[in-house]
Design goal:
The chain has a single domain, classed as Orthogonal Bundle (Tetracycline Repressor, domain 2). The chain is about 65% helix and about 0% strand. It is elongated and about 65 Å long.
Length: about 200
């Protein structure tokens, strides 16, 4: 008997959530289609009912990862003043590996070494995820009246992604603490030095 559309959609969702966690934790190359399907309790033969290729799976699983990360950060900052919201985003992003939730990991920081070799459909998803993270950080910066809030948000994302990439390689707690503290301090220095609308000098007539 053929599965209903609802059952097929639920199965696809389960595959994507499982694949997202495995890719982020173990890497794309190290995670085979069979690993994903086995973790879902499904046969490998059923994979192609839902996806055309592993690249298709990587693209859609990465989109799921960005959706989950965005949702968690939105929930964390909901109703918070802009400066506090920004602090919470920076704090949570830098400590994503301490959260105990593999789905909270960001593809930008955790799969960066592999994504450079990904195909176009994957790169489009990653670029869209990057843009979403920039907009998330730009929103409180705009409320704080920074002049170039988009450029500032892009710089902060670069700091955060780079720091988490290094944290994945840190082999002791002291080094990890140093990387985290330096990233947070760099963001603060960047914010302190960035011009706001109040710094604009109106021309004299």
């Amino acid at each position: 008997m053929r599965k209903s559309n609802a059952e097929a959609a639920e199965t696809r969702k389960r595959i994507l959530e499982t694949a997202s966690g495995l890719f982020l934790s173990n890497g794309i190359t190290a995670t085979a289609i069979s690993d994903v399907m086995s973790a879902c309790g499904l046969t490998q033969g059923g994979f192609y009912r839902h996806f055309t290729s592993k690249e298709h799976l990587v693209a859609d699983a990465s989109a799921v990862a960005f959706d989950y990360l965005q949702g968690r950060l939105d929930e964390l900052t909901s109703g918070k003043p802009p400066r506090e919201a920004l602090r919470l985003i920076v704090h949570a992003y830098l400590r994503q590996h301490q959260a105990g939730d593999g789905r909270l990991l960001c593809p930008l920081a955790n799969l960066s070494t592999e994504l450079g070799h990904a195909d176009q459909q994957v790169k489009e998803v990653i670029t869209a995820g990057y843009s979403r993270l920039v907009k998330l950080i730009a929103a409180p910066l705009m409320r704080l009246d920074y002049q170039d809030y988009i450029g500032l948000a892009e710089a902060i994302v670069s700091i955060l992604v780079g720091a988490v990439s290094l944290l994945r390689m840190a082999d002791d707690e002291a080094l990890a603490d140093s990387i985290t503290a330096n990233a947070e301090n760099t963001v603060q220095l960047l914010l302190q030095g960035a011009p706001t609308q109040a710094d604009l000098v109106l021309p004299r007539h």
